[in-house]
Amino acid sequence: MTGKIEAKVMIIGAGIGGLAAALALQRRGFSVTVYEKAKQIRELGAGVIITANARYALHDLGIDEKLEALSSSFSVFHTCHYATGEVLRAVKNEDIRAKVGYASMGVHRADMHTLLMEAVLANDPGCLHANCEFVSLAQDDAGVTVKFANGTSARADVLVGADGNVSAVRSFLFPQEAPKFAGQVAFRSLIPAAVVPASIQSRVSVMSAGPGRYLLCYPLRGGKIVNLVGLVQSNTWEAEGWSIPATKEEFAKAFEGYEPDLISLIHNIPDGDVFKWGLRDREPLETWTVGRVTMLGDAAHPMTPFLGQGACMAIEDALLLGRAFAASSTVSEALKRYEDARRPRGTLVQLSSREEGQTLQDPTKKRRTAQDRGLLDYDPVNVPV
């Protein structure tokens, strides 16, 4: 072990953030057990953009090259007029690489999740446990005990909540604070490249923002499929979950007035492959840590998708958590190092993404991307912790 302490760490949530944290800790010699409420540990099929700040961490975790081989690294990212398709801004990915060290890449979430899970299991084949829904926790001076809905319990020196923006761990620690509807409904689909209109194919990656709405599409898996996401302002939303079935007609109606090729793209979605969900938001916390329990990813700082930083922030958190434990002589020191290093940035990016969501859907305002805001310059491998 490279660290000064011997700590057994329990992680609630086997998504990208939870698995990345497990791997970061394992690679620094710590014992980790991960519990997931789903009956099967897997990632839902959808795309995500991974930017340089997260790629530094993925390189440290040993999976960036493998992930890049499965991804799509688009040459140019286009911002277009929603109705005419006119290119308003074109950002070359090579320019991003030259400035911050890595190009951005479009990744299938399932591919990244699989690589992380394989790496974690290679280190410890018995460390992942499904069908373990968090119910409660109790902690003392020596550790934390968690009870699960299946009647079992587990104990460790430290507990990390990595269970998303409706985190049960967060709700247990802060019962007075609950997620709220963010006023946005999202649609998503994965579309075979063969049915994507030629004008969309030629632009490779397209962001099309209009009043109260925006569409984003970019290639995955070497251009074999295209990830399409649309967000629409809405006053109400009741359903839970982010894989609620929707229809192509419903999706297209929400984007009436958009350029014809984008509407054609929506109508070309294979039957049964449109889903929707309501965005959830929570106010930033003044602390992520209570005793021996802390949080990461959306559990700590729920990210709206408007800067494309949700998965990236979880990966950053994961690496800094591992680094903090490796640098510390006590659990309390490790948790303080981690939160001091991460909470200011997590809060900044969370609030910046919320602000960008308003800017994107108001044609009178000039947008500021994650790159414009300097967020991609962050190197989680070398920042102080």
> In terms of per-residue confidence, which ranges show pLDDT below 50 for 5 or more consecutive residues?
none
Mean pLDDT, all residues: 95
User: What would the CATH topology of the largest domain be?
Assistant: FAD/NAD(P)-binding domain
Second CATH tier, the architecture of the largest domain: 3-Layer(bba) Sandwich
* Distance separating the two termini: 18 Å
Share of β-strand residues: 25-35%
State the share of residues found in helices, binned by percent.
25-40%
CATH class of the largest domain: Alpha Beta
Order of helices and strands: EHEEHHEEHEHEEEEEHEHEEEEHHEEHH
Q: Major sheet, described briefly?
A: 8 strands, mixed
The count of DSSP E runs of length 2 or more, i.e. the number of strands, is 18
Shape: globular
Q: For this structure, what is the CATH homologous superfamily of the largest domain?
A: FAD/NAD(P)-binding domain
Query: How many discrete structural domains?
Result: 2
Structural class: alpha/beta
- CA-atom Rg in angstroms: 20 Å
**Strand order in space, largest sheet:** 5-4-13-14-15-12-17-16
Helices, by number, come to: 11
